[in-house]
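Sequence in, structure out. Go.
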Amino acid sequence: MQKKLTVTVDEEVYEGLHKTIGPRKISKFIEELVRPHVVRPNLESAYAEMAGDKRREKEALEWAELTFKDADHEAA
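Output:
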């Protein structure tokens, strides 16, 4: 569900938003900027979902093994 919010900004910022983002896209732009700062994901379920992705896990394991081999060959 969406909620309406009134925000007051400087005139120069308002004009810049209209020119750069477009008048019908400002709400989405602001929401995408703000969301990571105010909506905390449920990390436990996100990690569980990622672990369930077998292809991703295989690629991550291959990357980790290659990285370990590279580090093993570095001069001390």
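Check: The radius of gyration is 22 Å. DSSP finds four helices and no strands in the chain.
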